[in-house]
């Protein structure tokens, strides 16, 4: 898929609308680095989790950012009305075994999302810690919004947990507004967060004005 170069002020960054073959493991490492605390109870230990995430990655529903030829940021998304990405259940049971796998499946179900038609849902955005604060996360969000518009979506949604107030502030600056907050205090000890806020930004499908 076509790549596009932008200068963030800290150097050129190239965006790509897919994960190139061979970069799946690096993308999975970025996800694990960013979301390991949240995903750990379902996917630990890391030496199982990272290959599992790499194998399950949907390369064509992702945006990557490269700096100096290295994959430094990654975002995954789902489009409403499309088949969900590869089924998790069999893969989880195969990787972790039947007994342990069932508990993990129950935890993973908490993060599952089946977007409605006309909606792009961001499954995750992860920037390499050494490259944060340079505008790369914002570039990924704008690229996701462009994809949403091209695919005829009316809105782009994402979830942010209550311990991530800096990310929430960033999304607000980028035009997202809170739709709802679901409080999950019983998950705080296990997963490290006690509430999830869904945020939304309107998108003008290509050729139509934004609502
Ligand atoms: C949140 C995240 C994607 C932002 O990417 P980024 O490239 O740093 O974002 P930008 O440079 O475009 O914008 C910087 C802003 O991001 C936000 N931010 C959130 N966490 C940050 C971090 N650890 N380091 C730097 N900025 C962070 C802040 O609002 C920051 O602005 P500030 O410096 O004024 O507080 C990135 O920090 C990240 O990968 N964090 C870990 C994973 C995560 O939280 N993902 C989002 C889940 S909803």
UniProtKB/TrEMBL annotation:
Transmembrane segments: none annotated. Keywords: Acyltransferase, Transferase. Coiled coil: none annotated. Pfam families: Acetyltransf_1. GO terms for molecular function: acyltransferase activity, transferring groups other than amino-acyl groups. PROSITE patterns: GNAT. Residues 23-200 form the N-acetyltransferase domain. The keyword Repeat does not apply. The keyword Translocase does not apply. This is Molybdopterin-guanine dinucleotide biosynthesis protein MobC. It comes from Amycolatopsis lurida NRRL 2430. The lineage of its organism: Bacteria, Bacillati, Actinomycetota, Actinomycetes, Pseudonocardiales.
